[in-house]
Amino acid sequence: MKEKIESIRRAIGEGMLQVHDRKQLFELKMQFLGKTGEISALSKGMRDIPPEQRPEAGKLVGEIRTWAEEQFAAREEQLKTEELSARYASERVDVTMPARFAGTGSVHPVSLVRQELIDIFAGMGFDIYEGPEIEQDYYNFQALNIPADHPARDMQDTFFIGGEYLLRSQTSSGQIRVMENKKPPIKVLSPGRVYRSDSDATHSPMFHQMEGLVVDRGITLNDLKGCLDEFARRMFDEGTKTRLRPSYFPFTEPSVEVDLSCCNCGGKGCRVCKGTGWIEVLGAGVVNRRVLENCGIDPDEYTGFAFGMGLERIAMIKYGITDIRLLFEGDVRFLRQFKG
Ligand code: PHE
Q1: Please, is 313 exposed, middle or buried when counting C-beta atoms within 10 Å of its C-beta (0-12, 13-18, 19+)?
Q2: Which of 4, 176, 298, 300 has the most CB within a 10 Å radius?
Q3: Using CA atoms, how far apart are residues 254 and 221, in angstroms rounded to an integer?
Q4: Is the CB of 252 under 6 A from ligand 1?
């Protein structure tokens, strides 16, 4: 009996060395502790043992059973821990690994310019008004002192939609909408898209304008000049000068074309300013009394100034862009060059 037990003990010890997972362990366990296993066979063989030796033999069998159960339980624990750490190792996430770069976008140059202009003029006390892009002839032309057969309509190749509707060709339509609803003092900035049937390196059928309108008692062309000087210095650099040249718009009188000293050469003359030292940036003037009258504002009591500039043009000057189409093609290699 003793020998038999010793050989089982050895067999279990050796078998244990071959066991590498819980399935193999279970099979080994069954071989000894299962119903038909070797240790169970020992218990069954008890009846063949002479009664006087039975207590002794029973004790030995009990001991080997307890020992075997402990061995299997311990190995089982060990395998469980090993399997778990193997799983942890295989599913491990390396938090120190450099992250895959999820490309962030950049702000479009026209949006950059738009925001910068809003900041500058809001700082001078301007409110923002955004009017409709589908506009009535009345607001885009007639109320701005451009009647149906006026030759000034030719300057703005307009997309007519039908009836009295059109795609606004200038943000000046916002002037009328503001003055119809608000009495002076008025100080508004009106940014937005405008449309003209025109397309080449410096013209796009859709582009952006920013309109400015100030109406109050005693407003003169000097106030316009002061306001634009401030804009030029903040948008470009401290040394930027403005120059007003006589021009014509039906809704302003007098009207001016505004030039800025070239930000590329400082006014000496270069390729950007075509050797003149000046760059034309916007149209402006003193609000025509007819326009004030059209909006129910007494032109003998109030005067005003207005200006309108193209945002693409400002962006092109500021960033040295030579073809307006780059601003609309959506080429990321181009767009990526702008901060934001
Ligand atoms: N609306 C004019 C244009 O588009 C610009 C302008 C605005 C001129 C306000 C004078 C006053 O050309």
Answers
A1: buried
A2: 176
A3: 8
A4: yes
CA of 309 to the centre of ligand 1 (A): 7
Sequence-distant (6+) residues with CB within 8 A of 71 are: 12, 16
Closest residue by CA, ligand 1 atom 9: 307
What's the whole-model pTM score? 0.72
Structure tokens at 275: 């050797």
The CA 320 to ligand 1 mean position distance, Å, reads 24
Ligand 1 center to 28 CA (angstroms): 95
Does the beta carbon of 294 sit less than 6 angstroms from any atom of ligand 1? Answer: no
The pair of three-digit structure tokens given for residue 79, joined into one six-digit string: 């395998």
